[in-house]
Predict the structure.
Amino acid sequence: MGLSRRIPCDANRLRAECADLDEDERENARKENNMSAKQNAPSTQSSSKMKPEEYDVVILGGGTGGTVAAWTFAGEDRRVAVIERKYIGGSCPNIACLPSKNVIHSAKVAWYVRKSEEFGIPRRDFTIDMRAVRERKRRMVSGWNNVYLENFKRTGAEFILGSGRFIGPKTVEVTMSHGTKRQLRGTNVIVNTGTHASFEPIRGLADAQPLTHIEALELDQVPEHLLVIGGGYIGSEMAQAFRRFGSKVTLIDRNERLMYREDDDVTETLQSVFEEEGIELVLKGRIKELSGKSGESVRIVVESGDGLTKTLEGSHVLVASGRTPNTQGIGLELAGVELTDRGYIKVNERLETTAPGVWAIGEVAGSPQFTHISVDDFRVVHASITGGKRVTTGRQVPFCLFTDPEFARIGLSEKEAKAQGIAYRLFKIPMEAVMRATTLSETRGFLKALIEVDSDRILGFTAFGVGAAEIMTSVQIARNAGLPYTTLRDTILTHPTLVEGLIPLFSSAATLSEPTGGDKRARPKQKTVSR
Ligand SMILES: Cc1cc2nc3c(=O)[nH]c(=O)nc-3n(C[C@H](O)[C@H](O)[C@H](O)COP(=O)(O)OP(=O)(O)OC[C@H]3O[C@@H](n4cnc5c(N)ncnc54)[C@H](O)[C@@H]3O)c2cc1C
């Protein structure tokens, strides 16, 4: 198996200065602290003699929030620098959201081709060219890198490719290529260093050199049998994608259900989609040990829910069982920045750390692990620095699992409503009732909405179906505008669209939630209410 990747630096300004790496990603990870390139002339002074350069805002780690922060603050005439060791724009456009969705879409095309006869197109033999899949993804990444660099140029924010660490209060030292260093001091410093894939202390795991999402998205061959450890967002999305490319896939999760915190109808639908597509699920699985090497052959000894121990054999193993914050070795203690028990940076509701003037945003601050939240974290910090008021407390966290079909939710799930003792009216229809979905032959899943009992306020909305994230976003906007569900029901929506499915949803008969202990307004079980 050949793994290779190029640092996303093909923008002209940086091309000559970035190492063109054609080597294993894990090797790259080891070298991260040494590898750097730069845009600006580095100082060759030794760090002890150096006088820090003064900035209004220094950003350590160029995640999405940090990148938007750099452009915004620079656009407000502040002197800003972002220190980023590897990825122009952080994880999202390089190794996470966008590349994974790009590859998932290639997998969807493969899935369409596999069932093309259903669409009246008799199937011919086909093969999957993972090199071409990877090239399409790389082109997209490269395109975004260029856009981002152009934004840095346009706004005047300085992008420094190098590895940074605090050497004192609000002061960061950057190590660039060939060991050259710079020191930067900010009136405000924002830490946005993100997280990395966790490796659980399982015997043999590290020696097996498992794939993380980074290497998996760079594969140039379809794994014969992919063993996926962890059935959260990353594990579920990747498991389905590789199954659709033709891998045999086994997904091991320690919980009884995939996405176990979600409502039962969500977890059941996800499970049936996976089983229908031939993904083997090992739930309540406790991995005892691993042997072999990913890319050659791997054996995993796992104890499953029934107490039985079995041995799974595969060609590759992918680890997607959690994230670890990038807080080690970056001198936080020298800056007075404390960590939580779980190793994330300790922040208040304005995302200020224990060191005044030092802020933390995104995953390293323990925020929900989504790009849109990293961006919102930036808004919170921006408000504090510019005299505004914005906090993280009680904010809305919409999300989507980009399996096919997608699962997206905003606001309360039924489980959450029940736990909080909130009564609700439930509207629910299968995707088969959405006309557009039937034109696509994509009728798996459902739409459901929780509506307040004594008003028409939308408490929560779940879409598990084709285009779920877009449908959910329409409901989110209506909800945020304080519109009652009846507005969605009574609006003239274009036919046939997926969002139009909100009309049959909200025109259906609602049921009332079961009474709960804390709910004084609860009504009798499953009483039907017509509109
Ligand atoms: C496979 C995958 C798929 C995902 N899909 C989605 C999705 O569809 N939607 C969604 O909303 N979220 C998704 N996420 C989560 C999302 O990618 C992150 O929440 C998002 O990128 C925000 O991250 P961040 O701002 O915390 O930091 P990151 O974007 O991770 O950026 C941190 C940056 O800091 C740099 N860095 C770290 N230490 C140093 C140092 N010492 N010096 C210099 N630089 C340093 C790193 O190189 C990195 O570029 C996905 C994640 C993964 C792994």
